[in-house]
Amino acid sequence: MPLRLRGKKKAKSKETAGLVKGEPTGAGGGSPSASPAPARRLVFHAQLAHGSATGRVEGFSSIQELYAQIAGAFEISPSEILYCTLNTPRIDMERLLGGQLGLEDFIFAHVKGIKKEVNVCKSEDSLGVTITDNGVGYAFIKRIKDGGVIDSIKTICVGDHIESINGENIVGWRHYDVAKKLKELKKEELFTMNLIEPKKAFEIEPRSKAGKSSGEKIGSGRATLRLRSKGPATVEEMPSETKAKAIEKIDDVLELYMGIRDIDLATTMFEAGKDKVNPDEFAVALDETLGDFAFPDEFVFDVWGVIGDAKRRGL
């Protein structure tokens, strides 16, 4: 069934939720004698991934504020932080801090290490690399495809921050803009990337085991802190297994069509479609919330199929 012409985009609504679930968003409306419940102070523990003492971070409501808190705890500049992993100091892209933080998660901050300049010949149409970003301006390599162009260059590693391409500074770019620039390079073109790898420790095995223990604890938790690059954080219930799997599949579709992986974007798409009854309504909802992406109709149908399957299984 072809999609109908999509309507005009509507302005996005502003976030009004506070850090603590149920926190009032404005004065008035309550009983004069009623006093507000005390806000729950969320405290997290963090270390530098290459080795440090344990610090406490609290009072943040966005990814940018979290980085500032970590930087303050360890007396470094926020710009030194490349990204964070949860419950492990290793460069594990499956444990990457994204849009959600378990209330018992232990945070490991990976900071800038060695700089390197790499020349690459784009001998194939695809470089065989997946790009993501930390939400505050640093894009980095999330996956390297076995046998791909990038895989043949052993100095390029998963976790490396891409600072510039052919001399153009890309700090501040979103990952899909970086992926687009790499995709637009011509086949057989020789180009240069300036990379920064995360600082590494000589021995991290004991702390890796500690991270695993922390991960086991959070597996039974029922709430997460949802972070955003802009706007306040909110405490939310853990998503159902069906919903979580659907969001992962949407992330796969994003990579297939757009060459990017973005779990926050996949979550937004799922939320936009979960209460829609047909793909036309879903397409309009995508235009209202994510119109700047101009998703092709085939992509919309595939994502709608994932959401439909999840709805039939029960969310």
UniProtKB/TrEMBL annotation:
Record-linked SMART domains:
PDZ
What family, per the record? Belongs to the GIPC family.
Q: Which Pfam families match?
A: GIPC1_GH1, GIPC1_GH2, PDZ
Q: Which domain of life is it from?
A: Eukaryota
Task: Please name the source species.
Answer: Theropithecus gelada
State the name under which the record lists this protein: GIPC PDZ domain containing family member 2
Q: What range(s) does the PDZ domain occupy? A: 117-184
State the PROSITE patterns in the record.
Answer: PDZ
Task: Spell out the Basic residues composition-biased ranges.
Answer: 1-12
Query: Which InterPro entries is this protein grouped with?
Result: GH2_GIPC, GIPC1-3_GH1, GIPC1/2/3, PDZ, PDZ_sf
Instruction: Cite the residue spans of the region called Disordered.
Output: 1-36
What gene is it encoded by?
GIPC2
